[in-house]
Amino acid sequence: MGMTNRERVKAILHYQPVDRVPVVAFGYWNETLEKWAREGHITQAQCDGYYDNSPADNEIMQKLGFDFNWNSCLGGNVNLLPAFEEQEISREADGAIIKRDGNGLIVRVKPGVVSIPSEIGTTLTDQQAWEEHYVARLQYCEERIPVKALEAARAGDASRDIPLALHCGSLYGFVRNLMGVEELSYMQVDDEDLYAEIINTCAEVCYKVVEKILTFGVAFDYAHFWEDICFKNGPLVHPNVFARYVGPHYKRITDLLAKHGIDIVSLDCDGKIDKLLPIWLENGVNTMFPIEVGTWNASIAPWREQYGKQLRGVGGMDKRVFAQDRAAVDREIERLRPLVEMGGYIPCPDHRIAPDAIYGNVAYYCERFRHVFG
After folding, report:
1. Distance of alpha carbon 179 from alpha carbon 122, whole angstroms
2. Whether this model's pTM surpasses 0.85
């Protein structure tokens, strides 16, 4: 009998042998599924019912040949509680809507544009606004804990095939979501005390939620943070500032995880992360996801050469080949072969599979991946 996928993932990320490498994805753009439904590859019901790890997601994954969606996480609510009510502020001549979102961020949304809204302001302008609108929304309470989901996960531990991560929240990306890059950058200089207080308050919620979840006894296979605090040229925060204000919070949480036997800690950060890598590694975060191969040919190889086996990775599969042909898929799998042989690495298409993906090429990738890495 072969290994389970959770056994494969843990073995690979601990540099141990496996019967085969799992075929992993990170979901799809909705537009991708709409196109595949029109073409008859999936049903409209599967398209309409899709979200990460939904029955529809599992059906589509299985049909294509993937083993599971890497975004298999369970965590508590570490966001504003309650969130702001979304409020339209104004409309511009081109149809764009200026609104306050659930995080209190003022954004410009252009109808019909599938993209991240433009940040143009924030409700979190100063100490008074922080105390009036945010502090009470960022306190720990039992309502943040998904008790029924945790009990169900614990009951299913023995039969679960897919790895399950404890989602630990976000220690800086969430703060960016509250303020926007520009306002947050100014605050670190203009009001250092408030800057630290905001980070510390958000991190404390994350810690307490993780601490409580760990008491349920769920057999988590790894832990996972979300950040998204880098762009194509590097971090959106100075590495020294990040190390000083945020690093200790990672260490506090990863030390807690280690006490409960969780030693693989994954982090989702888009962009060029090289300058933040040593800070994460020093503070217990050891698995990087994604690895942005499609933008500037990022690879785990130079990181492994620099940091050794303490660094693991998931991602780095160039999904652009899905829009080309089978020969391109073959070349990509051959490019991945020496990276997989290094150990501690699981290929996965970076980000969601895009609308230019040809269904047959994705299915062929899964078939060839199983053949080459099985």
Report:
1. 5
2. yes
